[in-house]
């Protein structure tokens, strides 16, 4: 047996490693097992970050491409409505009440004799403005509160978490209705934005707190502290940037719900005043025409549905790119 083992050890083509009787393992020589092309690493390629990987994934996602095209188109309509219509959405005459499509008025007129097409075009500005502004405020306030609560912990976390729980117990739409009833004399779009943000920051705060709790215990934060970095510097320089992914996902997905909330409040007559052109206000005005002239109700409803769908699709695509574990396909 010893002679046999000596012979095997001198043979470069097969040998046994740490083998017991009956448990021998064959290991091929290294020169016979070259590194395959699929396993090779391009050492000359620059390193990529999580955001670069996410962008590479998004570019290949048809859901992202379709939603991005829709959102870009809707934003262009909101910013430059005069490129799509030359009619004044507030110019109404009862002579055209419920008149059908005509030259320059492809969607006809509503009950007040206003051009439906121009009101749909100009209504995009209101809905997009409310959705984007509310999302920005909610992400900033909720993300900051959640980050501070998760990073410092202790009594800071206890106080902020209890405040978050109080607001979380209040339904956003119900709370917005109660508060808006107190400020019905105000006609500013900021009234709706601030009220929606007041009750909408809670979800992002909870997500941000969880992300920061996970990020603050990672090695980079410990190393930064060991090098003499202050807690506030660690929070804003290292922890928050590495906790943004779930916050961005929730903010993108929630943007569509804020647009729907604004339309709902305007539909109920307590959101934006009738002097402001909005899809929710037009839907509210046209609800009495559902049986006789449903097309007057259909056009602003379809514009609202397409816009919300585009942002929801964008949110799903971003979620798949930034959080691969949550991918549905």
Automatic annotation (TrEMBL):
Q: Which segments constitute the ABC transmembrane type-1 domain?
A: 124-315
An example of a Gene Ontology cellular component annotation for this protein is: plasma membrane
What domain of life does the UniProt record list for this protein's source?
Answer: Bacteria
Q: Where in the cell is it found?
A: Cell membrane
- Tell me which PROSITE patterns the record gives: ABC_TM1
Kindly give the membrane topology term recorded for this protein: Multi-pass membrane protein
Keyword Coiled coil recorded: no
Q: Matching SUPFAM superfamilies, A to Z? A: MetI-like
Where do the TM regions start and end? 63-84, 128-154, 166-183, 189-208, 239-260, 297-318
* Principal location: membrane
Q: Does the keyword Transferase apply?
A: no
UniProt lists the family membership as follows: Belongs to the binding-protein-dependent transport system permease family.
Q: What is this protein called?
A: Oligopeptide ABC transporter, permease protein OppC
Q: Which organism is it from?
A: Bifidobacterium pullorum subsp. saeculare DSM 6531 = LMG 14934
